[in-house]
Amino acid sequence: MIRSTILIFLLGLTLSAGVANGKELPADGIAAxxxxxxxxxxxxxxRMEITVQQxxxxxxxxxxxxxxxxxxxxxxxxxxDRLVAQQAKEMQISITDQEVESAIANMAAQNNMDLExxxxxxxxxxxxxxxxxxxxxxxxxxxxxxxMRVRARVNVSEERAREFYNAQVRDVRRSAEFEGAHILIxxxxxxxxxDVARLREKALNLVKRINGGASFEEVAxxxxxxAVTAPRGGHLGRRLPGDIPNALDSVFLDMExxxxxGPVKSAAGFHILKLVSREDTGVKPFxxxxxxxxxxxxxxxxxxxxxxxxRELRKKTFIKTLI
Length: 323
Prior knowledge:
Elements: H1 2-20, E1 30-34, E2 37-40, H2 41-57, H3 67-91, H4 97-110, H5 115-124, H6 129-149, H7 158-173, E3 178-186, H8 193-211, H9 216-223, E4 235-239, H10 246-253, E5 260-265, E6 269-278, H11 286-316, E7 319-321
Antiparallel strand pairs: 1-2, 1-7, 3-4, 3-6, 5-6
């Protein structure tokens, strides 16, 4: 803190000297101090100018925010960039010119443009190639640092991806007919805890048999205690969501055709469920979109963790804003 106070004092002397020598420091003064480095007003103004230009050419152009808001956001972004750069220096991470040019070439290719067309597109959006190179270098540096500092904090499981998928498709499925099947292991109402546990274990063993290759229908006919459905392989017939008890209905709603799950507890006992089929709703099955969902959730979680990490850095670093 003493070191930072001395730095502020020296900077104040520098500003005063600059004014005394006739330099236009008020037009390019100090906007902030980050650790042992300074951020100039000219840097903030340059970032603001790019932001405003991009807003003006945006296809979703909206009422521009107040200049003070643009300035505050620009300064905040530059502080974050400076914190990342300081971490990169500490970690001995750098970005080569070749990496920057390769990334720009890839970005142009992704937009089906050659470099000259890409350059023109940037200029139409208020950015020249020199500015874009600086921005790309900063982004690549941030990507490298974040991958090393933050990536280990992010782990999106298949289970989490499935929960996200189910939440998105439930409303569509609520209007779709489905055909389900079940195997019932009855639990008498006056059963002791030890008996309930034994019956649940029995249901689990039946699930293992089915997952091991046994026919669901054959296991149902031999083991299910539902006298109505057991003779037909456990099949419940065509149903609409809401036609069967909610304990089972809500599980069927989240299942894929051919999937077996359980045991599921209801008032009657333990059920092993199979979704035989569902009316086509136009929704892609989870298996087809799993990797895409995991990628999207990973990106979202990375952004959240990056924000947390940057806030941690801000707390550990001396930062003084002067505008």
